Amino acid sequence: MTGYYVNSSSENILQFTEPDSYYGRVRKYSIGHSELVIDVGISGERSFLYTLVIDLVEYVELPMTWVGLNLCVASDEECWEMLGKIGKLGSYPSNIEIETKERLRELYRLYQFRTPRGTYRVLAAHTLVNLPYDG
User: Fold this and answer.
1) Does residue 35 contact residue 54 with C-beta atoms inside 8 Å?
2) Cα torsion angle, 46, 55, 5, 84, sign
């Protein structure tokens, strides 16, 4: 199991040489446990290589399957904007106190799956777990 802390503004987190040659499939999204499980494979093949687990999920904007796994982290400003849209910032989304911003930066990331068809977003915790596929 590989778990790792994801810095803000990280690019190509999964470090695929050709991220557009991979695809993702949502295997499970558990609202109660706030967990998103994504199977990762190479386009054109039926088997999967990895399972990506994302915890503390607050917002998901993903199709069930998609091609292109250039997983990046949006800017802090984009993350705060999304937190405001889903009501996590209370009544002051445009004027967040510095210490509140720091706490949010430590906890949340706005992940972006950049694909040939567009960008999909997931707002979740700052730690990802990448496992061998356990199908």
Assistant:
1) yes
2) positive
